Amino acid sequence: QKEVEQNSGPLSVPEGAIASLNCTYSDRGSQSFFWYRQYSGKSPELIMSIYSNGDKEDGRFTAQLNKASQYVSLLIRDSQPSDSATYLCAVILTVEGGGNKLTFGTGTQLKVEL
Amino acid sequence: NAGVTQTPKFQVLKTGQSMTLQCAQDMNHNSMYWYRQDPGMGLRLIYYSASEGTTDKGEVPNGYNVSRLNKREFSLRLESAAPSQTSVYFCASSEYPRGGTDTQYFGPGTRLTVL
Predict the structure, then answer these.
(1) Fewest CB atoms within 10 A around its CB: which of A33, A61, A97, B107?
(2) Burial category of B43 from C-beta neighbours within 10 Å (exposed 0-12, middle 13-18, buried 19 and up)
(3) Cβ contact, residue pair A100, B90, below 8 Å
(4) Which chain B positions have a beta carbon within 8 Å of A43's beta carbon?
(5) Chain B residues with CB-CB distance to A46 below 8 A
C-alpha cells in the first residue's frame, strides 16, 4: 500500500462546476496535511494546509480532513480553466526512529473544460 | 525576495560526467531539501538538511551527494551521472529546523538529461 494515494486522473470538469480531489494516507498518526498545485513544467506551489478534522475554506478552495477515515480532500468551487493543473496531496508521516517526513502522492491531473 | 532559486534551469550530461546543482533561499529557513520528480513516481526525497551543518539521506540517495554550504545554500552533486538520473530536480526549504515537519516552498526546478 502506498503511503499517500491519489487517483492520477485526468479528472475533467466543466467550467463553473465543483472539482473534488481525494487523497488517502496510511499513517493513522499523521497530523499535518497539504495541497500543492503544479502547472505543467512548473514547480509545486502550496494552496492550503489543514491540521484539524473538518473543513477549511480559502476563497474558492476548501480542504476537508477526516482523520478517522484517513482521508483528505480538496474542493474547488466555480472551477476555471486556469485551475487546470496537477494537484499533489502531501502528508507528514512518522518514520522509523521517530522522525517525520513530508510524503507526496503522485498527484491528480485536473482539466477544466470550457 | 526571490524565495528559492536554482541553477541551472536545464542541463544535458553524458554518462559518467559530474555536475553540481545549486540551490539558495533568502527566507532564512532552517531546513532544505532535494527532490527528484519522475512521471508516475511523484516527488521523491533525495537528501535533506534539517539545519546548517547537518544532512540526512532521503528515499533515493544513491548516486548523489549534498553539501549544506551555509544557512542559505544547499547543493546536490552527481559524481558520475547515469541515464537513470534523468529527471526534474527540485530544491525546497522550510522554516523549522526539524526537517519534514512543516510547509515546504519549492524552487523552479532543474531539468537534467543524461545521455
Answers:
(1) A97
(2) buried
(3) no
(4) 90, 106-109
(5) 103-105
| Cell numbers at B64, concatenated | 548523489
Q: How far apart are CA A88 and CA B78, in angstroms?
A: 27
Among A45, A65, A66, A69, CA closest to A57: A65
* DSSP secondary structure code for residue B73 in this structure: B
Return the C-alpha cell found at A25: 494516507
B4, containing H or E segment: strand B4-7
B21 closest CA partner among B9, B3, B38 = B9
Find the length of chain A: 114
What does the pLDDT look like over A23-75, one tens digit per residue?
999 988 888 999 999 999 999 999 999 999 999 999 999 999 999 999 999 99
- CA atoms of B58 and A5, how far apart (whole Å): 19
Contacts 24+ apart (CB under 8 A), B83-86: B83/B15, B83/B114, B83/B115, B84/B114, B85/B36, B85/B112, B85/B114, B86/B112, B86/B113, B86/B114
